[in-house]
Amino acid sequence: MKKILLFLAFIPLLSFGQLKKEVLFIGNSYTYYNDLPDLVKEIALSFGDTLVHESSTPGGSNFNAHSTNSQSLSKINQQQWDYVVLQAQSQEPSFSPSQVASDTYPYAEILVDSILANSSCTEPLFFMTWGRKYGDQSNCQFYPPVCTYTGMQKRLRESYLDMSFLHNASCSPVGLAWKKSIAIDSTIDLYSTDNSHPSIYGSYLAACTFYASIFKKSAVGSSYWPNAIDSATAYSLQEIGSNTVLDSLAVWNIFNADFGFQQFNDSVSFTNLSSNYESVLWNFGNGITSTDENPTHTYALNGSYTVILSAITNAACIQDTQTVSIVVNINTAIDELKAPKQLLFVTDVLGRKTNPTNNVPLLYRYDDGTVEKRIVIE
Fold first, then answer.
1. Pairing relationship of beta strands 267-272 and 279-283 according to DSSP bridges
2. What is the distance between the alpha carbons of residues 329 and 334, in angstroms, rounded to a whole number?
């Protein structure tokens, strides 16, 4: 029997159907500059998707202020949102780990708890912001890592991801999309003249990143971009924002169902690659299911089977699926174990039965239908 070992993994199959998402943005001027939520809405509309949004974005607000802000708390409780975006004051998550732990994390927790108290079906989505163009010069003397853009961006990434994983929340990696854009083409100025707030280019890149984070679809090909941006630059920003998110969903803890598998004839070992989930359900396509994390399943019959992994989160309110077809084709013909063919009789060239005789051409006829012509020379 020929033994074949297949190693397969699959990129998440992203839905391209029309979607509707209701999102509350909580933040400050980094969110309201250039009306970021509306930019996301327009990108969504260009693909036939719908974004219904509200905002609470008083200038300079940090998580501490939002945790007691009556407008922010009222909007959280206004309805069951699909996402509530949480954007901290631009500097606070970049400070030292000890300062962030005491001055930022407790209030992020209060906000997340408020979101989930209103509805466990709502996903908190942290807005990873960008480092200032020349670092945070006002705090450089107190904490040197923020003296440069690179150092400040590193701390923002660390803090936002810590908050996301600590609270089983998702993160929109806008700051990392900015970092990639700067590395690819630094002539696209993402900053406004204060070297802190976003230009229209920076806001559009942020919007592309948010579209990919919220809808889990690429913004590449959107027919919408602001008038101040040319089409080539718009396409580049669409690509950077989308790829930053969709190439690394698990890195940003964005809820997603995904798996790979190894197939050895009729036995298939599955590896769960989902992110930010609470439980999983496997359907092997033959009437058998499993809740194991990484199951191995043996198929009894040949055929094509549709395997579905369902990832479940937020107290079973939210579900995502990944589907793959697996073909099982077991070769049961084992040539090595077949019985040897049996000689039925021998004939001469005229077809008359005879006994084996030397120096005469004879035909040897076997039970499998084959005929051999032989002549034994003495």
1. unpaired
2. 14
- Non-local (6+) Cβ contacts of 298 within 8 A are 266, 267, 268
Instruction: Please report, as a single letter, which amino acid is at residue 294.
Output: N
Residue 355 is predicted with a pLDDT of 82
Q: Are residues 213 and 317 in the same domain?
A: no
**Are residues 105 and 163 in contact, defined by beta-carbon separation less than 8 angstroms?**
yes
List of E strands, the chain: 5-9, 20-26, 50-56, 83-86, 123-127, 170-172, 259-264, 267-272, 279-283, 289-290, 296-298, 303-313, 318-328, 343-347, 353-354, 362-366, 371-374
Note down the domain range covering 370: 339-374
| Burial zone of 67 (CB within 10 Å; 0-12 exposed, 13-18 middle, 19+ buried) | middle
pLDDT at 196 over 50: yes
Instruction: State which amino acid sits at residue 13.
Output: L
Task: Give the up-direction half-sphere exposure of residue 80: CA atoms within 13 A in the CB hemisphere.
Answer: 6
Q: How many domains does the chain have?
A: 3
CA-to-CA distance for 328 and 345, rounded, in angstroms?
43
**Which pLDDT value is given to residue 354?**
82
Does 336 score more than 50 pLDDT? no
Distances (CA, A) of 150 to 175, 226, 248, 321: 11, 28, 21, 37
Are the beta carbons of 21 and 52 closer than 8 angstroms? yes
CA distance linking residue 117 with residue 186, whole number of Å: 43
139 and 158 share one domain: yes
Residue 194 lies in a domain: yes
Question: At 111, which helix (H) or strand (E)?
Answer: helix 105-118
Of 171 and 330, the structure prediction assigns the larger pLDDT to 171
- Residue 182 belongs to some domain of the structure: yes
Whether residue 347 is found in the same domain as residue 311? no
More confident residue, 337 or 363: 363
Give the pLDDT confidence of 70-79 residue by residue, as tens digits. Answer: 999 999 999 9
Asked if the structure places residue 214 within a domain, the reply is yes
Task: Report CA 125 to chain centroid distance, whole Å.
Answer: 15
pLDDT of 375 higher than 70 = no
The DSSP 8-state label assigned to residue 122 in this structure reads P
pTM: 0.81
